[in-house]
Amino acid sequence: MKVAILSGSVYGAAEEVARHAESIIKSAGHEVLHNPRITFAALQAFEPQALLVVTSTTGMGELPDNIQPLYSQIRDVLPSAWRGLPGGVIGLGDASYGDTFCGGGEQMRELFAELGVREVLEMLRLDASETVTPETDAEPWLADFLQRLSA
Prior knowledge:
The structure is a single chain. The protein is 40% helix and 21% strand. Helix 4 links the parallel strand 4 (86-93) and strand 5 (118-119). It is an alpha/beta fold. The protein has a single domain, classed as Flavodoxin domain (Rossmann fold, 3-Layer(aba) Sandwich), CATH 3.40.50. The protein has 6 helices and 6 strands, in the order E-H-E-H-E-H-E-H-E-E-H-H.
């Protein structure tokens, strides 16, 4: 299966989780596309069969700058080929920010809903105030995500 990993990161933690997810998904025998600066054209050319978003949250619950242009392009086009694809979101944030905790991840979930992407697993929320190893903390969720992709 061709899995595209989209990542949005401010300080690098989400990037690290995305790279770790990439190696786990590749080890499971899937073809993976992950490039933090991917263009919409390159993403479409890959023809993903599943989507995984790993993003942190910045400001008042917004997506990081590096994923914002891609998010906007996807929203403008809403590729019909992605309707029904399996997907999942890993959100990183700090619970002390209250309502905006993992707001970037929530934005991507809303986009998935608009696209008709099937969330195969509830969004994983990683709290920076509770973990120093988010990539390791994501492993059980990723194992479950992979199992559901194969189902």
